[in-house]
Design brief:
Blueprint: H1 2-21, E1 45-60, H2 66-72, H3 79-82, E2 90-108, E3 111-138, E4 149-177, E5 182-214, E6 220-223, E7 228-229, E8 236-260, E9 263-274, E10 281-294
Antiparallel strand pairs: 1-2, 1-10, 2-3, 3-4, 4-5, 5-6, 5-7, 5-8, 8-9, 9-10
Length: 295
């Protein structure tokens, strides 16, 4: 019995000594080194950089000249019928853009929140539209005609409009995810653009009064009148705004990748919607690549 106990004690001593000589593997402690997990990267801090890209501009001129036609036909029976005319159409153009950005990130574990300001200059980003419409407006509401007379207002409108976006500043809030050396993010915020906007419309109105009479044989005959120029509603009106500041909103998605230390590259898509100016509404789609440095 004593021999068996002595052998057990010796075996335990040898096993303990052997275990002490084995390498200290973290996996044996229930954990892994950073080398077996994602590479950690600190996105927290201030950063700045520059970018360039491509822009698609879509400008809706459908109601651009309505303000001018309402002025021409003010206090007349033609204001109502002409206010619904969509004389011009939506038009698009493309161009390059370049600019810069500066911002600040705050990081909590894998979540990255940020606030960023950007400036973008657009290279010759100008759209325009022209149109023509002619209509015979018969006895419009509010018009008074003599008995047996039908009033025909032969109305023609010719219009043009243009909008050029020169540059833009934005203030954007960002939400990102720390993926190690890369960070996908989305953003939204406010935008202010600087534009040149113009619109012109020319109206030509003639009044033709057709009379319905009964001849000596009881036949009803329509006598077509001679069109007469209506000078008060036949005129040209124009309006121009240079360097007009227009508010809007912005949203989009992006991706940043750490190249070396604080140096990073980014790719992003940005949607911008401006408030209408002179009844002209402008929408931008911007695609950019950039290079920045986090301090």
């Amino acid at each position: 019995m004593r021999g068996l106990l002595l052998a057990a004690v010796m075996l335990g001593t040898v096993s303990a000594a052997h275990a002490a000589d084995m390498p200290d593997l973290p996996v044996l402690r229930g954990g892994f080194t950073d080398g077996l997990s994602k590479t950690s990267h600190n996105w927290d801090g201030f950063y700045a950089g520059g970018n360039f890209g491509y822009t698609t501009d879509s400008s809706d001129f459908g109601q651009s000249v309505v303000g001018l036609t309402n002025y021409i036909f003010r206090d007349s029976v033609l204001q109502g019928p002409t206010s619904t005319w969509s004389l011009l159409k939506t038009n698009t153009t493309q161009g390059t853009n370049f600019g810069g950005f500066v911002g600040r990130n705050w990081q909590w574990y894998d979540a990255v929140l940020g606030l960023e300001g950007t400036y973008t200059y657009f290279n010759n980003l100008k759209t325009s539209s022209s149109g023509y419409n002619s209509l015979d407006i018969v006895n419009p509401p509010g018009d008074v005609q003599p008995t047996g007379v039908t009033n025909h207002y032969l109305t023609t409108l010719t219009g043009t409009a243009s909008a050029q976006v020169k540059d833009m500043v934005t203030l954007r809030g960002r939400v990102g995810w720390d993926g190690g050396d890369f960070m996908p993010y989305m953003f939204a915020g406010a935008a202010v653009g600087r534009m040149d906007v113009s619109r012109t419309v020319t109206s030509d109105v003639k009044l033709r009064q057709d009379a319905t009479v009964t001849d000596g044989f009881g036949n009803v005959i329509t006598v077509t009148g001679t069109p007469m120029q209506v000078d008060a509603q036949s005129q040209t009106q124009s309006q121009h705004k240079t360097n007009a500041f227009v508010a809007g909103w912005v949203a989009g998605l992006g991706f940043e990748y750490c190249l070396w230390n604080g140096l990073f590259a980014r790719v992003e898509y940005e949607y911008v919607k401006f408030s209408p100016v002179m009844n002209t509404s402008v929408t931008l789609n911007n695609a950019r690549v950039g290079l920045g440095y986090k301090f």
